[in-house]
């Protein structure tokens, strides 16, 4: 998928929900820039085991975080949660482009999710995210793909 096609699809789905959210203009702009940055970082990666483009999962995470009312910085960090481990993008690059706070959140997410610490996930992201992670990782419920487009 080319970036123009991807962004067009985002405008119909996730970005539309983002624009209707309680986030201010600067927050919406930050999240959109994070999604575009992540798309470019993940571009050309092998699809996930499900066959979906790699970017689908980070945007689904962003959509979940938006839906439960998290801040723009937390949503942006959610978009980046796989980026350091799965692309050539470093934490330093995220800090340079998006600031220390988002880089700090990404680093923390990477560590929390790697350890699979549900209590920490619940504390940082809320009970809905902790439940979704536990159900998906624990295999007790099928993964439900969010409708991001």
Features:
mainly alpha, 149 residues, 10 helices, single chain, Hypothetical protein af1432
Q: Can you describe this structure?
A:
Helices cover 68% and strands 0% of the residues. It is mainly α and 149 residues long. The longest helix has 18 residues. The radius of gyration is 14 Å and the shape is globular.
Write the layout of secondary structure elements.
Layout: H1 3-12, H2 14-19, H3 25-42, H4 56-67, H5 72-79, H6 83-86, H7 91-98, H8 100-115, H9 118-125, H10 127-138
Helix pairs in contact: 3-5, 4-5, 5-8, 7-8, 9-10
Reading off the top of the CATH hierarchy, the class is best stated as: Mainly Alpha
User: Strand count, sense and closure of the main sheet?
Assistant: none
Treating each run of at least 4 consecutive H or I residues as one helix, how many helices?
A: 10
- What average pLDDT do the residues reach? 78
CATH topology: Hypothetical protein af1432
Structural category is mainly alpha
Element-by-element helix/strand order: HHHHHHHHHH
- The dominant shape is globular
Stretches with pLDDT under 50, minimum 5 residues: 135-149
Could you give the count of β-strands?
0
- Looking at CATH, the homologous superfamily is Hypothetical protein af1432
What level of helicity do the residues show? 55-70%
First-residue to last-residue Cα separation = 13 Å
Radius of gyration of CA atoms, rounded to a whole number: 14 Å
Q: Do you know the CATH architecture? A: Orthogonal Bundle
How large is the share of residues in beta strands?
A: under 5%
**Total tally of structural domains:** 1
């Amino acid at each position: 998928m080319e970036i123009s096609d991807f962004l067009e699809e985002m405008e119909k789905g996730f970005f539309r929900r983002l624009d209707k959210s309680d986030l201010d203009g600067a927050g919406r702009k930050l999240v959109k820039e994070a999604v575009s940055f992540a798309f470019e970082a993940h571009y050309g990666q092998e699809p996930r085991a499900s066959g979906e483009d790699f970017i689908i999962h980070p945007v689904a995470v962003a959509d979940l975080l938006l839906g439960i009312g998290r801040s723009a910085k937390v949503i942006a960090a959610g978009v980046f949660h796989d980026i350091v481990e799965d692309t050539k993008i470093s934490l330093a690059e995220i800090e340079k482009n998006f600031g220390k706070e988002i880089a700090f959140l990404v680093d923390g997410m990477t560590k929390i999710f790697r350890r699979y610490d549900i209590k920490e996930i619940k504390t940082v992201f809320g009970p809905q995210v902790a439940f979704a992670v536990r159900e998906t990782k624990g295999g007790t419920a099928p993964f439900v793909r969010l409708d991001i487009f």
